[in-house]
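Fold it.
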Amino acid sequence: MDVSEQEISRLRGRLREDPRSLAFVPLAEALRRRGRSAEALAIVRAGLRHRPDHVAARVVLARLHLDAGARTLALGVLEEVVKADQENVAAGALLGELWIAEGRLREARELLQRLA
């Protein structure tokens, strides 16, 4: 689902009013989907300073790393997320895909079976 510029503006406003707001997660994801990766990365990093263990934000960060071709960074983030939250389907599925691409089939199979 594509988020409108109006919704992006609304999320920005919430974040301006409260820099600790969770609005940073959907805002960063919306900007990422629109190809505005630099903005999204700045927002997700700022948000993670307030909420370093926020799982959904870390998944967005991993996607941004992947978009930028920083596969190793994305893998590291996803592995941390899955270690902390073994039932996180979004992180687990993405990590499983990356492991398959790397030929880490046994690990990927175990992870994806656990999530199924």
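The mean pLDDT is 95.
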